[in-house]
Structure formats: structure tokens, C-alpha cells
Amino acid sequence: MTLTWPIVAAVLFGALLHAAWNALIKAGSDKQLDTALMHVLGCVITLPLVAVIGLPDPAAWPWIAASAMLHVGYYTALAGAYRHGDLGLTYPIMRGLAPLLVALASSTLLGEALPLATWLGVAGISAGVLMVGLSRGAAAGTGSHGHAVRWALLNAAIIAAYTVVDGNGVRAGGSALQYVATLVLVNGLPYFTLVMWRRGAGRSAAWAYMARRWKLALLGMLASAGSYAIALWAMTQAPVAAVAALRETSVLFAALIGSRWLKESFGLRRAAGTALIVGGVVTLRLL
Length: 287
Prior knowledge:
Mean pLDDT: 84
Strand content: under 5%
């Protein structure tokens, strides 16, 4: 399997979509409800799609079940990170450490022997992402820096876990579209149920909030599902570790979105991190 330029272009577009839906959650006043609403809408949208295209091979179902459980933790940690810290701080930490963890697990859990160029590319992207995320400007904000970093580090481990799980699952399932559609169908409802159960007497206010936000949440859900569909398809064509690292170039888009629309700063350290990310991408493809 080889990382070709068309695959690179597709994954970069998916990275843009990923940064966009994360910015949408960060911009909302209720991170948990926005996250829950966005992904439960995925259940509604993908139900007719699954009815048309069918289910993946039964060999994929254990992976889907494991991924659905991991995604509950992912959504919880995501909302926690954005509640306490800037997009420009938490997003790069979450996305920067995950590809290194995936690369470390690839040889054992996915049977992929990574060449030196891939390791260099993954390391470059991860270092650049962390440099962007840990810059002084990214750390600024009204939330709690320590809590934000802890949530982000926890989520990096969860992201790495579900990436490895889904990398195995999509290959076992035989069809990336069937796998992604089924995963989206099953993984939104558990978190939505958990969030609404925790609201207790505040459920009426929660429903009113979601009634105002559902159109934006729908756009976010389409971006989220599209981004992950592209990534999982790419994992059937190229090494999972390389795709996982390339996907985290979304931090560049997140930094730009955070700077332009969320009024977060973008300094020299973020620019240097950007250069490292670009160098890592070139290394993945050209060496």
C-alpha cells in the first residue's frame, strides 16, 4: 500500500472538514450538547443510507462495537477539553500525540512495518502539531490550562485507540462506506443518551438549545462523517500510521479558524510548527 498524491489530497480535504466541525463545537455555548446533537443527527441521516447500501461483513462488527464504546469516551473528553481551553491549545495536543501512538501500535496490532521515512514524517507532523498547540498564544484563554491539557492528553490516547480499532475494522468489513455508515449509525446514540440523562431537570432547556442549533449541528455532522469516511477509505489504500499522521494536518486549519473566527492568537511558534508539519507531509510522500 502506497500513499499517493490523490490520497494525500483527499486526506487533507478531510482534515479541513475535521477542523471545521471541531471549531463549530468550540464556538458553541454548550460543548456537551453540541457534540451530542451533532452525532445523534448522524444516526438519523445514516439510517436510510445503511438500508440502501447494507451492513459491513460480520467480521467488522466486533470492531464497530469497540469503536462505539471508545467514541463515548472521545466525545466526553472532547467536550471537557473545549470547556477548559482554546481550540488552538487543545486541538493540536489531541491530534498531535495520537499519530505517534498509532505508529507505535501499528507493527504489533496492524502488522505494518513502517520504513524510516514514515517514522520521520510522523515525527515531524507530531512535533509541529505540538509546537503549534503549546505556543504561548495557544495557551492563552479564560479556561483552566491544566484541566484543558489533561483532557486533551486523555483524548489523544482515545483517538489513537479508535484509529487502530477502525483501521482493523474497515479492512475486515470489506467496504469503507458500509463500515463508516454503520459506525455513524451506532456511535451517536449512547453519548446523546448519557448527556440527556445527566441533564435531569434541565432537559427542557437542553431541547430548546438543540432546537436553535440543529442546522449548524447538521453541517458539523456531515463534515465529521465525511472527514472520517475519507480517512478510513485512505487506510484501505495506505499505511494506517501515515494516514493518521497526515490527517492531523487539520491542526493548521484549526489554528487558522481559531485565529480568524474565534479571535485566538497565531505567533511565531505556531508558524514554526506549521513549517514542521509541512515538512512531515512532504517526507511521508516523497522519501
